[in-house]
Amino acid sequence: MSGGPGWTGAIGEPTRIVLARHGQTPLSVDRRYSGQGDPDLTPLGGTQAERTAERLARIPHLAAVVSSPLRRCLATAERAADAAGVPLVTERDLIETDFGRWEGLTFSEAAEQDRELHSRWLGDTSVPPPGGESFAVVRARVERGLRRIVDDHPGGVVAVVSHVTPIKLAIRAGLGVGEELLFRLHLDLASVSEVRYYPDGPTSVHLVNDTSHLD
Fold it and tell me: Is the pTM value of this prediction over 0.70?
């Protein structure tokens, strides 16, 4: 059934992208930069993955599950796709930021190691970590990956299992706000958010950082 125009003026049936963050890893326990390394989940992370997968699998009319190729995301995505009986697709554009030399460091350790650069990085999305990629570069590939999902599933419902930065960037795109959202929005491990893409162009954010399935 096609949606009528709402207060935003958007018309047509939107593509609903339901975004889930992966569960806890040893690096997230210690609040360390965790980018394109591939740690396993902790026991708690495994439980979070199971509960998140159960939630995603119950979404009505779910067409597919799209995941970052890293194990901490696939732990949720594989379970959800199997339970829902839908295809699982890996999408490298939705992988976490490459933190380069800061991978595995805490905020304080990175700031001590590269004080001036770390300070600039926190305020300028065009600045990359040493040997890594800037948030501006990440934004470009994440938006490319999301557009591919929308093009492949017009008017459909897709679950995406990814990481904190790509999910923040998806929400930023949905809201049409500035890059400061990256530094001000908190997303819990295994949280669920939702962005909708309408066929005539507008986007809207319908859910942010919901963890009710973990209770």
Answer: yes
